[in-house]
Amino acid sequence: MPSLLAERTEPALNPRQEASAGVKHVSRYRNVAAKTGRGFVGVLLLAAVWELAPRLEIVPSYVVSPLSEALAALWEMTASGSLFDNIGASLVRSGIGFGLAVALAIPLGAAIAWYPVVRETLTPPLEIFRNTAALAILPVFTLVFGIGETSKIAIVLFACFFPILLSTISGVSSVDPQLLRSAKVLGLGPVTTFRKVVFPAAVPTIFTGIRMAGAVSILVLIAAEMIGATQGVGFLITYYQNNSLYPQMYAAIITSTALGLAVNYGLVGIEKRLSRWRD
């Protein structure tokens, strides 16, 4: 019976409306294809500049390897298996630091935005740390935790913490007041209101900070590994530079870029799954 009612209440599209919908559908996919094509052309142009600039001596070829040589070195490093060991070390460090930052920053940011007492107490010290560059205090982490894994994880945690914290505060604070009034009218308690109304509405803003933190987790870790490490992608970059193995150095740089892109697109996919309700 419900299905029959649904059929009655849904107006059928006439041929003109169906044709218009089909045209819009095709037009949308054409726009997506055009954007993808232009992006691909941009990447090809970048690759061409990288390949030709050192070969034409626009930049010194003895320090800037052509792209083809860097890719050949990347293939050799991949085939030998040494690259995967260093990628694994970097991903473990950045993953642990990033995960700890998410676990700590979201609850704290929600508490700061939700409770005025917490906000007034914690905002001044957090502002002090927020304006301190992560790499500036890397020596402190090294002195306190040593040159092992703990210092690398700690610097990633510190760098990722504040983008997530600030986005959480912004997301929770900017929830539509009408939603809060509706929750109060329905008799929802503070915990239920936050869990079912506030947090879902704040997820898009929170994920903006999470995506920023994901990129930061790779960038800061690479820099930390370049300063002091015996394994990792950052260590590879410094090692090949010190030994004048420039194609391998650029191969390691390409690897770090690929890791950053993979993390970003992975987080975008997670955000889409958690934000399906917006569609």
From TrEMBL:
The keyword Cell membrane applies. Keywords: Cell membrane, Membrane, Transmembrane, Transmembrane helix, Transport. It is found in: Cell membrane. Residues 87-267 form the ABC transmembrane type-1 domain. The keyword Membrane applies. Pfam families: BPD_transp_1 (PF00528). This is ABC transporter permease.
